[in-house]
Here is the input.
Amino acid sequence: MIELQNVRFSYERERPLIEDLSFRIEKGESVGLIGANGAGKSTLLKLLLGLIQGEGRILVDDIPVEKANLSQIRRKLGFVLQNSDNQMFMPTVYEDMIFGPLNYGLSREETERRVDAVLERLGLQELKHRHNHRISGGEKRMAAIATVLAMEPEALLMDEPSSNLDPYNRRIVINTIRSLPQTKLIASHDLDMILDTCDRVLLLSKGRLVADGPAAELLRDRALLEANRLELPFSLAGRGS
Amino acid sequence: MHMADALLAPAVAATMYAASGVAAGVSVYQLKKDDDAQKLPTMAVTAALVFAGQMINYTIPGTGSSGHMCGGMLLSALLGPQAGFLSMIVILTIQSLFFADGGLMALGANIWNMAFYGCFVGYYLLWRPIMRSRLFAGLGPRGGQRARIALASVLGCVLTLQLGAFSVVLETSLSGVTDLPFGAFLALMQPIHLAIGLVEGLVTAAVLLFVYASRPELLQDVDSAGEAAGKRSLKSTLVILAVLVLAVGGGLSLLASSDPDGLEWSLFGNAEAGYSENMGLDEESFGVHSAAADKAGAIQEASSFLPDYAFPGSESPAGTSVSGVVGSALVAGVALLICLAGGFFRKKKSH
Amino acid sequence: MLLICHIEVIMNKMQKALLELSDMDDLAARSSAIHSLNPTAKLLATIAYVAVVLSFGKYRLSGLIVMLLWPVLLFQLSGIPVHLCFYKLRLVLPLVLAVGLFNPFFDRAPLLVLGPLAVSGGVVSMLTLMLKGTLCLMASFLLMATTGIDSLCACLRKLHFPGLLVTLLLLTYRYVGVMTEELAVMTEAYQLRAPGQKGIQHSAWGSFLGQLLLRSMDRSQELYASMLLRGYHDHFHYAPERPFRPQDALFLLGSLAVFFLLRFVPVAELLGALFVR
Here is the structure.
């Protein structure tokens, strides 16, 4: 589904933010992307979406991420931003949800059908006509996920989907992510959430891939995590070593 | 400085809408030609920021009072005059629709008084010429630039507020809602806005200087390398400015000192057909029967949108009679009844 | 809920503005016969109403009072309490009053004699001015309280307003909420560290808003990315507008007819004449 070959990225004359990165994500996989601040997680997501261009090859469903293919690529990849206020730019949840599908040329009827289906699936029917600045942080995050799902993407990229949420809403978001069948790439510092939602973990440090392996194994490796300025997930710390 | 609906006659409101509409149309056209898709979200976020920023109170040192920021100058320095103008339109629209600051009819006038002067006059006459000049070159590249930003902000705010205040007076007087003589009204408004403009200018300068210190590339016409562009001398600009200051200042003092009633008649009597619509009442209020007034009245009668109705059997055409008072009281009673009835039925329904 | 009338003094200006904004949204989200009218019909009727109100002469107080009936009736039909809009009068009335207050001094000729009481033209024209301000406010408040920004934008689009301007209005409205909230928090934080200050001290004049401005520029980049990722080309899609049905036409034409009637027929005088003579 997603493939990177020797990808490198830097802003002019600065230290590269991504260096010689190669990996593959198969269809249906759930992959966690972890690493300290500045490790290159967000940069990597932006590269995949074609928001910035680097060197090397990036393929999404065997289509190279290039200017000519961007509309095709972005239809396949749904991106959930860290700040839902930046994602939800229309006055109401409904208007935000129809924005993507209509832009991709779907009919009004089909768009309506999708919107209702997604809202029902996430149990958010009540939010449909609410104003974005009148809903709570947790509702906003769920609504942001709903706007992305309304485009029926094949893969989901998420940037800190559990940040700034109370335990209850965090749990709702985690359960939602788990229930979604799409290929997932989730960047986060919330290692407990990664453990709950992902089978595989990629560990980045200073733009390089340091480790790539099963979540249950990698997130138990205290030495590796601490060497990369991370900590054991809370749920494993009690039982570990 | 927001005009209220009540202060405007429909013809004046429509004229101001037309003027602002043309400026908006030209701005939309020019922005579309630039075809900068990124500009739209930037405009929206910056406009929202200015909207909120105008609510901040800035303490004025040495006094107990506080001032605010001038949106028009700030927006055109950040976004350019066209994008700044459209952003101001949107801010004023939201203020009038959701906060009753201004009004639906007065929106055209408010856009002109606050957005047009601040964005176009402030930018083309002051901001850009000063930024491109070699003024303050002696202070070094960065110091010179800082001084130019401060100067342009303060001058821009003072000038645009003076023009805005003048327009408010003009529009109100032309609408014929006040008996305050034009000159006296002017003498009241201009000095107040001189002080406000100075404070707004200083606040705006402080914000722009902060932006210059951290992200100079965000400012229009500012060379981020810190070197003065120096493409042309400031002489021509200074000449324009001097002429403008003389014209405005001289004109204002002349108006303020002249016989106010005479002035009012010169204004109203010679007003074009567009302005004399709905102005028929001035004839009654002043009771003057001059040739000019007759002419204005004739034009008014022929062209007026809603000529004043003189109904039979009443003492005065203005409709202020004893029966009028009694009837008004009755109507007010009916209105109150409607309110009570509505409340009554709603209560019943909710039970 | 509608807290406008019970705002505590502790709130800063931005928090009050946020409350006003969300109250308007709540009102617009209600349902009633007036809410379900086509927004274009409502907008046009409101504009006509305001224009007719403003066209009344400066002494036609009795004519204006009759105009009160239209908004009062609509307020009742929409179920929106009339008193809510009077909070907003605090911005309109002082300005109108500042201009109108001079009229009684300049225009002293008695216009109306009620027994021993003589009312001068200036007083009547001042009252007319204030009534005009109140009526215009009631009408536009009613429009927004029963329509909402999304329907209004769809309607502006239909009336062929430039797409760029309408989209800008929509986006700005959304971020007015976000920005005002951020500034409200910043203001609170500032006040906590500078107790007793009424505003922002001059040493922080630039940085207070400047900081937020720089962050906003980054925000706008992310916002743009979010638009692009959802396939934004060059125009926005709006919620579909309510269809223009026969009852909308009836409402619009009926309102216009009533306005013209009230403008040209001295209802108050005729009504009063029944009792006086």
User: Anything to note?
Assistant: The interface with chain C takes residues 46, 49, 51, 71, 74-75, 77, 79, 81, 83, 85-92, 94-95, 98-100, 102-104, 108, 129, 131-134, 147, 151 of chain A (CB under 8 Å). Residues 83 and 90 of chain A are 14 Å apart (CA to CA). The first helix of chain A runs from residue 41 to 48.
